[in-house]
């Protein structure tokens, strides 16, 4: 899997010089005022220096939200975000676990729980930041009623997101979910129509549309592939009481300045400014604030 690294935005030399002059002008009182300032700037280290965080994210909407924070909020919070973009759902957790990242922001709570169980990760999740409803798309039909007999449905291969996709298909009469509460996957659901599943990696779902009759696609992959939920979706996942909110995630044993920085980023992700940015940027409801 390939990731691309976004260059962190460095605070201007002019701002740094102004800060240095302000510190010099305080004279013998700088110690007392510095103690007070450290309480106000929760993201700053003990010395008042800027904390750099390496944060992994999907290109959209996650990296876009982080870039908004970097451009507008991070400097005042004592943060400098180095945003590392990933096109898949596996490597961001691998990189967080091995210390290459200080946090990641790309996954839902159900997916995180699955990954912790399968891989033994010891991560902590923040509060929900946003929800990206799944949607059904097709290059071949304009209405779900036109789905052909013996057709093919593209569905994501990872089990946590597959369960969400199957729930949307169940809501639209394609399958029946297990009555005994068993986790839904392509082998445990009952088909209510004549069709075949084609399991596909999430990042390839949009490309697969030419090979299937319809596909259930995660919001971030749909956006990356140029699909509009408002204009192209045939059915959309309900946002009401949906547990699949996207969260900031970090290693449970993070400490020191990195811990302070992650906590400040978690705070900024739930700021009024970020909520407004999400609402103004994704007016079609493809990204919905969860706070």
UniProtKB/TrEMBL annotation:
InterPro entries membership: Lipoprotein_NlpA
Membrane topology note: Lipid-anchor
Gene3D superfamilies in the record: Periplasmic binding protein-like II (3.40.190.10)
Subcellular location: Membrane
SUPFAM superfamilies in the record: Periplasmic binding protein-like II
Pfam family, one: Lipoprotein_9
Alphabetical UniProt keywords: Lipoprotein, Membrane, Palmitate, Signal
Cleavable signal peptide: 1-22
Sequence similarity: Belongs to the nlpA lipoprotein family.
Protein's recorded name: Lipoprotein
Natural source organism: Schaalia naturae
Lineage summary: Bacteria, Bacillati, Actinomycetota, Actinomycetes, Actinomycetales
């Amino acid at each position: 899997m390939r990731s691309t690294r976004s260059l962190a935005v460095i605070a201007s030399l002019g701002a740094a010089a102004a800060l240095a002059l302000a510190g010099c002008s305080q004279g013998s009182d700088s110690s007392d005022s510095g103690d007070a300032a450290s309480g106000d700037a929760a993201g700053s280290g003990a010395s008042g220096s800027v904390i750099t965080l390496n944060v992994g994210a999907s290109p959209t909407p996650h990296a876009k939200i982080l870039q908004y924070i970097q451009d507008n909020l991070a400097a005042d919070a004592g943060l400098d975000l180095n945003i590392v973009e990933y096109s898949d759902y596996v490597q961001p957790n691998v990189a967080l676990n091995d210390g290459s990242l200080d946090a990641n922001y790309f996954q839902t709570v159900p997916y995180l729980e699955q990954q912790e169980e399968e891989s033994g990760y010891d991560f902590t999740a923040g509060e929900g930041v946003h929800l990206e409803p799944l949607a059904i798309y097709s290059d071949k039909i304009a209405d779900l009623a036109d789905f052909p007999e013996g057709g093919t449905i593209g569905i994501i291969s990872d089990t946590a997101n597959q369960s969400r996709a199957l729930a949307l298909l169940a809501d639209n009469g394609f399958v029946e979910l297990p009555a005994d509460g068993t986790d839904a996957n392509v082998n445990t659901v009952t088909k209510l129509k004549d069709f075949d599943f084609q399991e596909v990696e999430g990042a390839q779902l949009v490309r697969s549309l030419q090979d299937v009759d319809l596909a259930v696609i995660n919001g971030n992959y749909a956006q990356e592939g140029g699909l509009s939920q408002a204009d192209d979706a045939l059915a959309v996942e309900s946002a009401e009481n949906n547990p699949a909110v996207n969260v900031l995630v970090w290693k449970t044993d993070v400490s020191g300045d990195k811990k302070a920085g992650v906590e400040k980023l978690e705070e900024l992700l739930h700021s009024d400014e970020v909520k407004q940015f999400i609402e103004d940027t994704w007016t079609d409801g493809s990204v919905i604030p969860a706070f």
